Amino acid sequence: MTTVDLIHAYYDAFNRGDREAMLAMLTDDVVHHLNQGAREVGRDAFRAFMQRMDRSYSERLTDIVVLANADGTRAGAEYVVHGTYKADDEGLPKATGQTYVLPGGAFFDIRDGRIARVTNYYNLEDWIAQVGG
User: Fold this and answer.
1) What does the pLDDT average to over 33-47?
2) Is the CB of residue 30 less than 8 Å from the CB of residue 43?
3) Segments forming the whole domain that contains residue 55
4) Are the beta carbons of 10 and 115 closer than 8 angstroms?
5) N or C: which end of the chain has fewer CB within 10 A?
6) How far apart are CA 43 and CA 47, in angstroms?
């Protein structure tokens, strides 16, 4: 599987809500840089993050474009997030089922055919404006 195929498979699993398939594509020591937030390490930390996200948000990604370097060790993705804010998330506005659409992106390191780093980005101020914060 090429790096581009791996990243597409990762996002396909995300859109299906198949968190275990997503986790299987990560290294045990995956580094996850949260958007404008902390750095978490390990597959278990990533699982816990996804559980927190799934509690508060329902999201689907469209218009996914993936690029990779020549040796397949690094990749980037750009997409559009279509979501619903369904439960309050700590430090953010109150959730009332608001919907939002915003561009996002991610950067990846790939090691031995698995994702070793995920760095996510979206414009938090744009999101807050859309949900009425």
Assistant:
1) 91
2) yes
3) 3-131
4) yes
5) N
6) 6
